[in-house]
Amino acid sequence: EQRRCDKNMSLYEDLKWRGLIKDVAGEECELQKVLDGKPFSFYWGTDPTADSLHIGHYSSLCMAKRLANAGHHPVLLCGGATGRIGDPRPTAEREIISEEKVNSNIEGIRQQIKALVPSAELVDNYDWMKDYTFLNFLRDIGKYINVNYMLDKDIIRRRLENGITFAEFSYMLLQGYDFVHLYQEKNCIMQVAGSDQWGNITTGVDLIRKILDKPAYAFTMPLILDATGKKFGKSEGNALWLNKEKTAPYAIYQYLINSDDSKVLEYLKVFTFLSRQQIEEIYAQHQQAPEKRIAQKTLAWEIVKDLHGQAEADNAVQVSEKLFAGNFEGLSVRDILTGMKGVPTFKYENELSLVDLLVNNKIASSKREAREFIKGNAISINGKIFNDETQIITKDLALENKVIIIRRGKKKYFLAEV
Asked: Which of the pair, 284 or 325, is modelled with greater confidence?
């Protein structure tokens, strides 16, 4: 019997419909048999480059949950060993992270994975690499992979012109060996990752075939981009962290509710656990009245609920609706600061004219632009429109003597802390 994630589709069919299978190691028909067959163990890995995962990791976490919900066993690897080297980036070498920071980051990520994928078994590749000598690694692993094979990998080719260190060059072998180790010790027969890991994944598959003489399976998910072609979840160079102390649930909600119409159907498929029927019904409603942003609101609520619970999702909706309307009634300063975490903030110490306030704090790029905003009724303070450019903004305006909320247009907020 095929393993099903909803009443109408097998797991494989569901993943294909959601657009979650990009590259496949081997024949796709074999992958389908494994996905829809008996329970198996699979793994997904990440390096501890920070003490929190970010929204860019969320599609991989969702994939782990989908396979787990279908009865398969997730092994989630946090790379204490590979994190000490760094996966090659397309343009430059990653900075080396101290061992203390690596360990601290691993603990933060472990807590998040346990909360988001409760059935996952958590492992750290430092545990099996720390006592593996360099000579033994070269003898056991290095002899099976040809240098020309490594040079042909896309991520390596792109770095050859500017140069790549031996440490980064070796990363592929380390990740490939992770797959071998987990295949032997945890019976992980499959690896799942983002498309940027294709070269590392296939190296692991090849090593298992050469060393163990056994078949292994792997597939990648497509890279999720926003409407401008940037990586999903990158906002002005700042990641949206899954740790709510680093990024408030409201900030994630607000980012998602502003998703472009051209991408929202894709995001609903990739990032939510709604069924095909539910998603198609929601998108049909969205197409009939796109101005209501039904699809975006559903997307934002579902993701925040999955990450932080329904109470946080409901609160994000309430805060979002009130802040969007410029209505701060019932919201304490604590609510506002929590809901608007990540909003540009500055210290306000001197009384300034409205024009100077806008220019000095980069709310407007020039006095002329500031006056245009003001005359166009585009500037409001604490929910009230201010259209007098000579108005002096005093500390008396601060809510609870703590903060002044400035809004430019309908969506751009700034906080002045008194």
From this structure: 284
